[in-house]
Every structure is written in C-alpha cells, then in structure tokens.
Amino acid sequence: MDELIKYMISKIGYTLTAIIGGALPGSLLIFVWNRKLYMELDLLKLIILSFAIPGILYVCNIFVCLPIMSLYNEFKHDTEIFSVEFIFIIPAILTWIEIGYLVMSKILLPEYTIRDFVAKWGIIGIYFVISGGILDVFLLPILKK
Description:
The structure is a single chain. The chain has 145 residues and is mainly alpha-helical. It has six helices and no strands. Helix 2 (12-33) crosses helix 4. The longest helix is centred in the middle third of the chain and has 33 residues, at 43-75.
C-alpha cells in the first residue's frame, strides 16, 4: 500500500486529473440526484459508481471529438494542432459540461429525470456520432484528393 501511495504522489498531476475529471463529477451527480443512495453506499461502491458515470460519457465524447480533431489535424499539414493531451482534455471538458447540465437541471427542476435528458439530447448525440463517422470514413478520402 505504501508503494501505491508513493507512486501516486510521484504522479500527482495524473492523480488529480483522475480524481477531478473522473470521481468528482460522478460523485456530485449521485449526490444531487439521490442523496439517500449517496449516504447509504459504502465507500468502494461509491467510488466505482463515481468513476463509471463520467466514464461512459467520456468514452462517448471521445468518439464524437476524435474524428473532428483528426480531420482538423489532417488539413493542417505544417503542424499538428491537437496534441495527444489535448485529445483527452476536450472530451473531459465536455463531460463536465454535460454533468453540470444534469446537476443544474435537477437543482432548478426537481421533477427532471434522466429520461428527459435522453429524450432531449440523445437524438442529437446519435446524430453527431453518425455524422462524424460518415465524415471521417467517406468524406475524408474524397476531400484529400
């Protein structure tokens, strides 16, 4: 256990990024949506759930952002605009925005449910994923010629 703590302290930037980008938004969302569940869960289950909720959104955001950033890098031949770190930061920021929207919606409208969020934004997200995939697979080779 001491080895793990020493390693995490030596990589404090990555540790803080994982906590702030992963566990904090998920924990905040669980607390706002169901305080009783938040208080009843043991620590391990709460940590796993706190990382799982933003993790799902983060993976979806990577699939939306990656084709757009690769297209942008493809047409800027002189330099690579988006570095590897930047490719992982943008989806994290989008995840924070989405979770912030859910938290504020629940605070301002207590009768707001996840189903309302999916009905409003799910179709838009599916559209962006499909259009990004079509753009990356079919239009990129045509535009490069």
